Amino acid sequence: MAGILMKVGLILLILSPKWSLFVYMQATGKFAHRCETLQVGACPEGWTARGNHCYKTLDGIHSYAAATTTACTDIGGWLPTPNTPEENAFILSMSVPTAEGVWLNCNDLETEGAWTCLDGGKQVRDRYWGTGEPNNAAGNENCAVIEHNDGRWHDVYCNYKHYSVVCKRSAPGVLSIEA
């Protein structure tokens, strides 16, 4: 069988041309397991691929607390913050049509005016604020969203339930083994 051999600890992983995964145990000299046929980098069902990531829109509209606590982590993702203008537009395009926009993993809850904007645990440097934003207009606008009206970031009250949640995850690359 032609394929790719990778040494992983005490086992060899063999990916066949059809992307079936076999585990060869060095100790016994036999194949121990076989995984289902898969597409490397394919997103799970219900997720949309873009680059090296997968995105999924959750049903309904949510508050920031619901979006950041478990909504995305429960399905293996995280609440994103866009890294490029293209990703910003893509995330907004996935919003629930009845929502005013999309929540971002970006807030100044710890220190007013010191925005922490994370994407998968990494700080996002570029920001896409709308004109005059962030402005803390109501005196308690500490969470960021992408607004449908201009496609830019705005600070809003974190308890508003007018925004959609789009989750992000890395495209699969780590494979689990079936017995």
UniProtKB/TrEMBL annotation:
Please, which domain of life does this record's source organism belong to?
Eukaryota
A single Pfam family, by name? Lectin_C
In its keyword annotation, does this UniProt entry include Disulfide bond? yes
The protein's matches in Gene3D superfamilies, at most eight in alphabetical order, are given as: Mannose-Binding Protein A, subunit A
InterPro entries per UniProt? C-type_lectin-like, C-type_lectin-like/link_sf, C-type_lectin_CS, CLec_Tetranectin-domain, CTDL_fold
A single GO molecular-function term is: carbohydrate binding
Q: Which UniProt keywords apply?
A: Disulfide bond, Lectin, Signal
The residue ranges of the C-type lectin domain are 50-167
Q: Which PANTHER family match?
A: C-TYPE LECTIN DOMAIN FAMILY 4 MEMBER M-LIKE (PTHR22799:SF6), TETRANECTIN-RELATED (PTHR22799)
Instruction: Quote the protein name from its UniProt record.
Output: C-type lectin domain-containing protein
Species the sequence originates in: Patiria miniata
